[in-house]
Amino acid sequence: MDRPYKKKFTNLKEWIKIFSPADKLQFYPPQFIIRDPITSAVRKAFEEGFEVAVIVFNIKNLRELPEQLGEQGYIHFIQLLKIVFKEVISEELGKDEIISLHDYSSDGLTLLMKVNHDNHSVTEIDKKMKKILRLAEKKLYDLIPLARPLFETGYMFIEKRHYTIQEAILKANQHALSMAEKKVQSKYNEMLFLVSKIVSQKDIYLLSQPIIDIATGKVKAWEMLTRGPKGSILESPLHLFSVARQTGMLYELELIVFEKTLEQIHKTGCKQDIFINFTPITLGHERFIRDLRKMLAKHKNISPRQITLEITERDSIEGMENFLYNIKVLRIMGFRVAIDDTGAGYASLHSISEIMPDIIKIDRSVIQDIDKNSVKESMLKGMLIIAREAGSLVVAEGIENKEEASVLSRNKVDLAQGYYYARPDYLCRGLKLS
């Protein structure tokens, strides 16, 4: 009797033609991973201001699959594995986000993708990684019901400094693989040690970016931005928060950011409003309210009314029991609540109706080139209507030139921040605004 998967593979060449046209996602065999065009593509991404993430989809039980499927079935599985992941990745990621997908140095596949330089885009990577894996697993099961691959996933950002591009790609791949496998005596333990050391020694520093009142041109507030130890592999916030998340230390790290912020407010005597980023994981933690109260007790001169808790990665709040309860308690304490990245997806609009935030921050994707795009300006007007209905102030993020700023001014946007006004600096330091 023929096995079920055989009929599905009689036309494997046709599958390849359908799923991998020449202009789509490219595969590179192992020997080409550190040769051009990958190194050139990574270098170009850095030059354009992007980070590059290395994401590993590792098959934990790969060596058991030949016994499950037979030799020929295993060969078909390996061939279809690449095809299915190519199809799913092409559907889930923008063409400009993808650098390569290959099978280098692991029992599975490794994806290199561009990431916008955002201090808290770690959850977005997590979500995309998990969604790609979930969809790929379903397609593989539909095509080969006998196959039961067990995937492990991990990711790391390519370090821009200290190494050549080739060495940086290899090191990021090794770290991502270690995160996926969590092997004893592996790089995973090294990363865990580094983050544990940073947390125990509170070895981070903060910069701040001013938030400008568009009507007056004056600094209205500051957003706190986190950096890891200077000169280390974890100085970049993307590296730091990605490793903290994967090693289970995100909550501790974000509490240190809050503690350091209070210390800086006390030291500088800053009287303006302060925005601090928190992930929903931290905001919904059962100990969060208690831990904040303890820190505030040490700084009785600092009122919660001066602090805005900015919810990053807002589309991961669903199903979190304590999240909405904690938000209510925090508001009673005097904190204000902001939602970040509004306009980046439906989930942000859904979050507005659930949370009714005091402040809505409009994502850079809406603001970029808004002076040249009437549709984006219409989107901005729609968000302003939503904000008024919710009783929220609006902050436009990522303003980079005078033309973008002028669109915000004529639409009476409340507040704005971006390199056009000032780059991140130290809290309440005298800044010459553009």
Automatic annotation (TrEMBL):
InterPro entries: Cyclic-di-GMP_PDE-like (IPR050706), EAL_dom (IPR001633), EAL_sf (IPR035919). Residues 188-434 form the EAL domain. PROSITE patterns: EAL (PS50883). It comes from the Bacteria. One of its GO terms (molecular function) is cyclic-guanylate-specific phosphodiesterase activity. CDD domains: EAL. SMART domains: EAL. Pfam families: EAL. This is EAL domain-containing protein.
